[in-house]
Amino acid sequence: MVPEGACRALLEGQVRPMHSEGVCVKRVMVLVMTVAAALTGVAVTAGGAASAGVPAQQSQGVTSSEITVAGITDTNGADAALGARVRFDQRNAAGGVNGRKITLVETANDKDDPATNLSEVRRLVTQDGVAAVVPVQTPVTAGDYLKQAKVPFFGWGVSPAYYKNPYGFGFTGALVPPTTSSASDTWGKLIDQLYKSQGVSSGAKGKTAAVISQDNSAGTNGIVVIGAAAKAAGMKVVYQKAPIPAGSPPGDYTPFVQALMTSDNGNQPDVIFVVTQFNYTLPLSSLLETSGFKGVLTNAVAYDPRLATSVKGQTVFTQFDVPEDTSNPNMVKITKALTDGLKGKSLSQPVLAGYFTADQFVQAVKKAGKNPTSASIQKAASKLTYQIPGVVGATKYPTSYTYGAPCGTLVQSDGTAYKIAAPYHCYENITVPGLKPIPY
Description:
- There is one protein chain.
- This protein is α/β, with parallel strands linked by helices and 440 residues long.
- The protein has helices spanning 4-12, 36-40, 80-93, 114-126, 143-149, 186-197, 217-232, 254-261, 278-290, 329-342, 349-367, 374-381; strands at 66-73, 101-109, 132-137, 153-155, 168-170, 182-184, 208-214, 236-244, 271-275, 296-299, 315-318, 385-388, 392-396, 407-413, 418-426, 429-431, 437-438.
- It has 2 domains: 66-178 and 327-401, 3-Layer(aba) Sandwich (Rossmann fold); 182-325 and 406-432, Rossmann fold.
- The protein is globular.
């Protein structure tokens, strides 16, 4: 069961201020439209449309000693700013980039509203005068406006705003194409590795799988691409539906649980992919377990060390390596930097995403030369391959304007903590349908 306080905050929408002690668990959540979709290539929502007030080409936000940036997140991704500040502080302590320190002047909250996102992004550009928008952790990024303003933005590419947008840079690429013509096979292949680690020599081949989501564009597209990932690993998909009403969590998940529990000709499937936003995922998964589900229960939004005691046996797919990996020296260094910099705060998905976003921006600024501008940073990023070996990427621009890096980790809770169930590895992007490899 989810801790009482965490569940209440999640379901009632309570969120504490970003700098308060004891960050609310809801802050950890990443909507399926921001994670599961991100990890599988689900179409979510169009980037904010451009409108009046677009300034001329930018060369602002850079002085002889400073590069000014600002970020924007939704309510659930606000902790991305914490991770980004740690990375910027690291670089600034080492002298910045070519003598310039990077200053994150603020991180706006779009309150999960596209109109607010557009107005806030416009304000960051026209009033704060930033050289770039970073970190971005929201599915409603005003990409059209930033493209016309010629201001690069860096974040987790979980919005259509990144797709073929020359000013949008996701640290794992553009993850949300406008159609379901492609997907990553990573999640399915990680489940295959999980079975093999348990002694099943055939892995996931021949296993039955159910995929469930919410009844919205993210969900209806998500079940297709995640179903494709399951099929690519050799699973038989016996249930692929988005019946859960979108908008707010239902009061009773029993009908959905019953449908899942009998989806394999009256029997349980071997694997259930829960492709819903976080405040749907926990109650649905909990009811599946109390109803006697014995198979692999997996989602892509509930990675947070604070939740491990509540989700025993469940697996979570992350698109990058995690602090539980103590065998990779690169991840160990990142974990130490975040632990020291955040002084006890949880190293959740938004925190990690913010760190990687800031690191990608640092690499782009380095490549932009001694006198960077918004234009030269954009140009440098457009040809940058971003990677921390064994942790994230390789994310290869310009190819990553179209496809994401098909990589990830699978963790599983033992009731006390998360453990690595399938280590970080890169697989393939595939066509949908057809399941044919796409060169990356």
